[in-house]
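Consortium newsletter contribution from the modelling node. Members have asked for a concrete example of what our holo predictions look like. Here is one, prepared for the NAP complex that several groups have been discussing at recent meetings.
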Amino acid sequence: MKKGDDKVQYRKFGKLDFEVSALGFGCMRLPIIDGDTAKIDEAEATRMVRHAIVHGVNYVDTAYGYHGGKSESFVGRALQDGYRERVKLATKCPVWLAETHEDFDKLLNEQLERLQVDYVDMYLLHALNAKSWQAAYDLNVLDFVRRALADGRIKHAGFSFHDELPVFKEIVDAFDWDFCQIQLNYMDEEYQAGLEGLRYAASKGLAVVIMEPLRGGRLTNNVPEEVQAIWEQAPIKRTPAEWALRWVLNQPEVTVVLSGMSMMDHVVENLRVAADAGANTLTEQELAIIDQAKEFYLNRTKVKCTGCDYCMPCPAGVAIPRLFSMYNEASIYNLNPENVAKNYGRMIEEKMGADLCVECGQCEAACPQNITIRQHLKDLHAALQRP
Ligand SMILES: NC(=O)c1ccc[n+]([C@@H]2O[C@H](COP(=O)([O-])OP(=O)(O)OC[C@H]3O[C@@H](n4cnc5c(N)ncnc54)[C@H](OP(=O)(O)O)[C@@H]3O)[C@@H](O)[C@H]2O)c1
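And here is the predicted structure:
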């Protein structure tokens, strides 16, 4: 088969009687103009989405808020000319925008209009966590979901998730969902829902859609030389993106892996990988190589904070676990110092920065990991500010 002519593999969609492509198109990181995420390069993005569909991708994922609210209407246009009928179209309810029960209907109707469709195949409650789930539940969101299923505006109901495993299990068990969407990659086996959540949902018959398989590009951008050297030991040469995608596709419980592809080269490469990366196809040696890369990254962790929040609330307002997470991510993945400084600057403006620490030590008395929080706060403040 010529490069770019490969057809992706398909996987059964949970308990339902259809299959979807192992690679799905995530419309959150489309090519943009002038560095403005709200200005999608529509010509190039349309070419990419249609290329993927022609080569077998039949799952397209968007959401109300992506690209400053422009992604859904872009997807509506990109799927004209017969492409809509070839895919399962997924979008998400921005539950945080609903103030009343009626808002759920208004939002869905607006989304159908933006997408220029009478129905979506997959409708997800977006980015649920303990708080947003409770708020949506209190607004009787499940009654809305039942109504939208019954009147045909949505064909299948699911949710996407960003919180801890017990919350995930609670939501899985709260409704007869057809699917869910979780973050998973070789760095995140035990993060949020993680591998245990993947297996739990699959055991209940849910299809599991994966987001952030490349950790939003962190596993492919600025790859440290040492990690590159680890990949080069492998008998078969692969890019960091291919290793990461293959690790996710190796999990038999995974249904579809979404990738937010931002250029045509990504589409071509990811299609090629999804054409032959079946479940349980990585060898012991290959899995050991991936473990080595993971180990290397983890060794660059600055603070062994588990995010348990026992240190919170800080009387001075310092967002301790969030700051440690930012510090660790910057170190582990070689993040661009300018961007890190900008994000940290925002936290300082919002009065959550390490500069507010008064060294009372209340946090250290509460920390089950015995982390020297005060010293780490000083170090991160020095490290994260604009260079
Ligand atoms: N529901 C939710 O809460 C939620 C949250 C996150 C994501 N999602 C959905 O899930 C989709 C997938 O997540 P994601 O976009 O974070 O996926 P991802 O695959 O982890 O990250 C996408 C980024 O990886 C890089 N990339 C992709 N293919 C590559 C390749 N072959 N070679 C080198 N780099 C490559 C690109 O980075 P560069 O652009 O920097 O080159 C791209 O922007 C999203 O697009 C969105 O639809 C949903």
